[in-house]
Each structure stands twice: as C-alpha cells, then as structure tokens.
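Dear colleagues,

As part of the handover before I leave the project, I'm documenting each prediction I ran so the next person doesn't have to rerun anything. This entry is a single chain, and its sequence is reproduced below.
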Amino acid sequence: MAKSILIVSSLDAKGVEVQYLRDRIAKLGGDPMILDMSLRQVGESGSDITVAEVAKAAGISLTKISNSSKRAEIIEKMIEGAVVLVKKLEHEQKIDGIIGLGGTTGSLMATEIMRSLCFGLPKVMVSSTASLPGLSTKYIGTSDITLIHSVVEISGLNDLLISVLERAARAICAMSEVETFQERRAESKSDRYIALTMLGPCEKCASRVRKGLEERGFQVVGFSAAGMGDRAMEEMITKRLFDGVVDLAPGGVGENLFGGMRDAGPHRMESAGRLGISQIIAPCSVNHLTISKSKYTAKDHRRRKYDLDRFRTWLRNTPEELAKIADAFAEKLNKSNGKVRVLIPLRGWSSVDVPGNPTYDPDEDYVFVDELKKRLKPEIRVQEIEANMEEPAFAEAVIEACHLFL
C-alpha cells in the first residue's frame, strides 16, 4: 500500500511549492495529503484539510482568523486545531509520515504539530530559517524531527529550491518505509525496555550498566543528561515506552533550581514515579552546577571549579544548595507510585570526584545524602556503596538493584 504522507504548510504563502512537493511525493509512490495552516481563508487551494477545518477543530471562526489583529493568538489557535486533527489521523493510523515547508512562522507552527506526535513517526521540516541562532532548537525540541535547511528562500520554484524539494520528497518517502519503533517493539523478543541517563563523567558506569542489563535480556536506551536529552526521556516515559528507569545522572534537578545550563525543566525525575515505573537513582553531577561563564556572579567566581574541557566548567555546589537539591529529590521521589532505590557511591560521584581535583569533597557530598535520608519516605532505601561511581563495584550494585527491582 502507498504510504500516506501529510504535508503541513501555509498555502497562502507557499502554494506553488507545496503543490510541487505533493506531486513529487505522488510520483515516488506516496499518497500525499495537504493540511493548510494559512492565517486567512484561501480559495480553491487544493488542500485536503482546509483552513476552515483547522479553525473549527480549534473552536474559532474563519472570520475571526481573517479579521483579528492578534496574530500570535491566531497562530496558537491554528496550531491547537491542527494538533487535534493530526493526532486523530495518527490514532487512526492514517499517516505514515509528515513533512512541513516554511519560513520562521511556518516552521514554528509545523514543528509544534510534529512534536505532538509519537517517537518513530517520520517527521521532516524543510525550513529557510533553520540556521538562525536558537531557532533549530526551538523547531526540534525533544522530538525526532529531521530538519532540512533550504538555504534559499521558499519563494517561487527555481532550480536550487527544486533540488531541495526533490531531496525532501525522497527523504520522507524513504523514511515512511522504515519499520517504526512501535512495530519493532511488538516483534521484539524483549519485553523490558530501560531508560538510562548518562553523562561523560559517569560514562564507564553507564557502559557497564548497559552491558550488564543487556546480558540479562533488557533493551537499554541511553539519554545524554545535558538538559535536552533528559527532558526527552521524561516525555517518552509519559508515553509508556519504558518499563524501568536507571537515572545515573539526575543533575538536571539542581540545574533547574539554580539556573544551570543542564536545566532539565521543573518536572525532571517525576514521570516514572507518577506512572508507577520502577527507578534506580544515582547522583552523578548532582554536586556540581554548570553556569554560562558570561552569567557568573561574584559568588560563582569564588566557587571551586573543575574544567571538563575548554567549553564546560563544573562549579561546586555549596552545602546549602546540596540540601535544597536533596529536598527537591525527596519531594519528587516521595510521590512515586512505583519502586525506588537510591544508590550513593561514597568515594566520589563521577570521574571528576577523585582526590586531587579541586571540587572533590565527599564530606560536603554527604550533606545531600544526610538530608535525603531524613526526607525520603521509609520505603525508599538509600544504599551506600564503598566505591567511586566509575569503579566496577558501583556498576555491579546498580545492575543487582535492577535485577531485584525491574
């Protein structure tokens, strides 16, 4: 059967280009349909899902769309209506891929729709503004969107733009033929999927844990706990893609409290507990903060520091900050409906935490441990391991805890 490809764009601005893309997808064997995101009524546009249908799904009239001077509000309503319609198509298994075409506004609208869809559904955004500072991260967010920078403006067909559209059409058609994660999972011999956070300073531990769990029949999916990766993990947990979480590097909780660069949002370390999914928690990077050097305060300049590389510097958290982070951990973990165990390596929480390094201070680290023990509900055990986190003994303790819990 031909794969159904949804094209999302604004036909009042990109009509010719969208029609060309539709024709190319059809010639490649796909079954294209167009969702029109125009901010005004378009005549005989050739769209399959019209502006009127999008507006109706958002509970807004075409007259209001056309006459309103509140552009930002209208854009949000159109996105809201499109999300309703597209998620319905996804639920009914009527789309096998989605592709967007636009400049700044079109890209922001189309990618927000894409981000509402499940991991694994092919998503391609052709954008003339993909390289503008900060926009690519807004477009992609935590989703698996493929971003194609058109370089030239999407305004009239010419040989350069046609080259971009040809490649985009072939990309989305080819991607739609690939077996999705959900299909692979249904066919997999393993029914246990584990989310694993990892970070460079606990890479050895993460690698040992992953290999140990794979030997026991788990599939392990790693996430870089640098802010965006662990945000994505939290979102994927809410979609019930995992049966357990091994959270080796939950430093994003403290980064959120104190404005660090690895801020993973206010809901970090909450999704698994809310859904009753078992968790193993370790403290890699919890005792450090990463702040942009341009934002250092006088207090930050006085902190003990460790340079990971020429771009990244870890600042030592104060005892008062460690106590506040422990309180945040306890508040989140105490709400868990599933099993939780916290493992603490007593001889350092990462490869950074070794004697001789300026931020190494196991006595101050224990401020966090002591406060956490006081605040956690009795059924959550804090297990102390006589090892550095990067030593084999700690990874073995994590694997054993997983075996008991997961």
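Residues 188-405 form a domain with the Rossmann fold fold (CATH 3.40.50.12030). The chain has two domains: 4-181, 188-405.

All the best with the project,
I.
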